[in-house]
Amino acid sequence: MPDIVLSTLNAKYIHASFGLRYLMSNLGELRERACLAEFTINQAPLEITEAVLAHQPRIVGFGVYIWNVEQTMAVIGLLKRIRPDVIIIIGGPEVSYETEGQKIVALADHVITGEADVKFAEVCRVLLNDEGSPNLELPSSLPKVIAAELPALTQLASPYDLYTDEDIAHRVIYVEASRGCPFTCEFCLSSLDIPVRAFPIDGFLASMQRLLDRGVTQFKFVDRTFNLHLPTSMGILQFFLDRWREGLFLHFEMVPDRLPEQLRALIKRFPPGAVQFEVGIQTFDDATSKNISRRQNLTKLEDNFRFLREETGVHIHADLIVGLPGESIESFGRGFDRLVRLGPQEIQIGILKRLRGTPIVRHDDEYHMVYAPHPPYEILSTREIPFTDMQRMRRFARYWDIVANSGHFTSTLKLLWRDDASPFVEFLRFSDWLHAKLQRTHHIALHVMAQALFDFLTQAQGLDVAIAAETLETDWHRTPSREALNLRGLQASRSSDAPISARVPKRQSRHS
Description:
Helices cover 37% and strands 15% of the residues. Strand 4, helix 4 and strand 5 form a beta-alpha-beta unit.
């Protein structure tokens, strides 16, 4: 039986814990006395507790994040009731800052703040009283909160061999060539990571080669600024180009205003859909950018977007945030319209979260920033956006995800803002109308959304029935494994209140 269980509750099964694998790979001689035990937040705490205790551990380490802190706290509470002798060590972003007053910190025996790759092993050696560690503190002298020094990346053992064949077949494979971020955006924990540090490129690429040899085809880079250091970015892209095979997919987070010609030339060589760039724009409003200490050249950003959309097959996932200090609905809307016209395939609309340790709290008084007291600590209201309007924006973000980001209504979406109308104004109008009609934002079936779009376009906006029906049918046939509807049959049924499925005959999709 292992002495150490490394555990976390992932948001979904497909998200293999990168952090746990780093901890395991750097346990040194303790690695043979440890095991990984991953769960998901949807599993019952009692079942998780039972599975952990089945290993009969002496130490259990939990990775704690904003999405799992409450469920993890429930598991730790059960563990302490059933086996109070088990030593609980927690770490991760959610417990690395503002530890005083956190209930989960009170339950745990020790908290390791910061990057615990090496420190966790040191603490375990002390707690297990291993021989060969004469210079370490005695267990009785270990403090509750233990700050981890930044580890030297050149000294870290690689975690990539700990991905199992099952991970490779069914889960997201995370990789990183660097840590840290050069920017100081006040809402983001990465702004606290100074300086940016890079892994030795030769060793990193050797690890990528081993993953390729094992059949990995999808790589998600967690570097916050993949394109910050040009030689490294080019080296990684060239590495994958030289080993290109069908199905290979690369995901990067990129600085949106930094795309020099050398990098452009390499990006153009990738096949369509093979590369995804996650681009954090967050706001187009200059005053708001200044409030959150964010620097970006919008002229270069727009030029890079045009290049990516017109000359490459890159899939762009762009982020905007609602609720930043000083940002109004109107200024957000102008930025949203600007982004829509740049044409990214996805626009992720996030609601501002008050992450522990971030300096955005300095704006609380001036901008009347009110956050929810429980994870994920989303903004409830600001000076510029009262609670009722913030709720409208939450619905806007949710419906945008269903209609636009899902890819189900690509053609129909463009009908919502015709004749140079504002995409933001028209989609907010649709969002308000839809919520009044459905009174919910979740569990909306695809055919229900199709019906709603048809009704809004033809009744609220007065669009010709034939155009709306034909466009919706085009989108419907694009969706695989669904029973398609002959929406053109709606031409004579504009005034009917019956649902689409009752008004028109059905036929099998060509994808069936």
